[in-house]
Structure formats: C-alpha cells, structure tokens
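Section 5.1 Outputs to date
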Amino acid sequence: MAEKISTLQQALDIVKALDPEEQAILVDIISKRLSQQRRNELLKEVTQARQDYQQSNVKRGSVADLMAELDE
C-alpha cells in the first residue's frame, strides 16, 4: 500500500519546483493573507466587544474588584 502524502508535503513539493522569485512572491502572498485573516478576526472581536458594551454585558471596576470577584 502506497503511503499517503500529506497535503502540506504536496504543497512543499510544488513550492520547491518554483523558481526562487516565484517562491518569494508566494511567501509575500501568504504573509499578506495571514495578516488579513488576523485583522478580520480582530475586527470580529472588536465588534463583539462593542455589542457587549452596548448591551451592558460588561463589568466595570478596579483590579481589586476583579480580584475579589475571582476569589468568590
């Protein structure tokens, strides 16, 4: 039975076949896509935090208040 090659290994083999300039372009594209994904996730978190604040689903207080609540 032939070993199944992982998708990652297949991708690495394809990248290896590219010339160095194409590899650099690919790295740049992947880096930009990852950055955009992180921005999108942060935007979702900020949007959720704003909704929580508008709906009064947040608590205010000092660090001492937080520590006291954690001890309860």
